[in-house]
Amino acid sequence: MQRPFLLAYLVLSLLFNSALGFPTALVPRGSSEGTSCNSIVNGCPNLDFNWHMNQQTIMQYTLDVTSVSWVQDNTYQITIHVKGKENIDLKYLWSLKIIGVTGPKGTVQLYGYNENTYLIDNPTDFTATFEVYATQDVNSCQVWMPNFQIQFEYLQGSAAQYASSWKWGTTSFDLSTGCNNYDNQGHSQTDFPGFYWNIDCDNNCGGTKSSTTTSTSTSESSTTTSSTSESSTTTSTTTSESSTSSSTTAPATPTTTSCSKEKPTPPHHDTTPCTKKKTTTSKTCTKKTTTPVPTPS
User: Spans of biased composition, class Low complexity (predicted)?
Assistant: First the structure.
């Protein structure tokens, strides 16, 4: 009798956590279960990401993508690591969440009194794992992490009692990712870079497969060219035989044969009258053959 009650409890727990936005254990799906990407690349390492935080008097934070695994289609599970320049005690924090996520969940709550969520114990050194829908690059071998924001709220609600000892500038702010908003001096309006990786975490994407296909195509092209050359030779032989036949056999009716040859005709004796007109590029040869009058016997 205890088994149905236990099952009902587990189902209700999962539904309750999902409704509150709690991250749940993610089971990789698809034909490539849990395939990890070996190469995760910072898409804009030369931009100044401290500039925007300095303008807003926000203490500096950094973000790195530590792992990516392919779930299915364009869905990937990523893990990020966020670290602040200085340590801020948890007592100052009221809420911390990831918002604007292009993925199964648009918001990932990490800490919050109102949400009764306490998944981190340090707002200046934490990791978070969630799913995103990656965007395919112009180069079909790479996909980009979609941009999102991390929302910090210090000294709100009951945490306001510690305001007198606060010394880290702005207390409520959003920090965003992306490589697409900067000026001519490289000052980024975003706070963290964008990242990309191979599509489907295929570590051979764009590798030896493409080179092999190109070599095969080139070889086939060469073979086709040789066949064309043989065809030209056959045509020349046929033309020569046709000309000889016309010179030796009298046709039944008067005919006029006109021929144009790109290459000069080698010298030979020909009893047939031939008028040749020379031009800079070709020779025109006109042959006229008249049917002989039968001699009375």
Answer: 211-258, 281-297
Contact present, 120 and 126 (Cβ < 8 Å):
yes
DSSP string, 189-215: SSSB--EEEEGGG-TTTTSHHHHHHHH
Q: Is residue 275 part of a domain?
A: no
Q: Looking up tokens 């009650």, which residue turns up?
A: 5
In a domain, 220, yes or no: no
Cα–Cα distance for residue pair 72/78, rounded to 1 Å: 13
Domain count of the chain?
1
When the pLDDT of each residue in the chain is averaged and rounded to a whole number, the result is 74
For residue 12, what pLDDT is reported?
63
Of 3-17, 40-54, 181-195, 198-212, the poorest mean pLDDT is in 3-17
Structure tokens that stand for 150 in this block: 């991390």
User: Dihedral (C-alpha) 153, 56, 177, 18: value to the nearest 10 degrees?
Assistant: 10
Burial of 264 (0-12, 13-18, 19+ CB in 10 A): exposed
Q: Is 108 exposed, middle or buried (0-12, 13-18, 19+ CB in 10 A)?
A: buried
Instruction: Tell me the residue range of the domain where 159 lies.
Output: 42-203
Residue 35 lies in a domain: no
Report the Cα–Cα distance between both ends of the chain, in Å, rounded.
Answer: 129
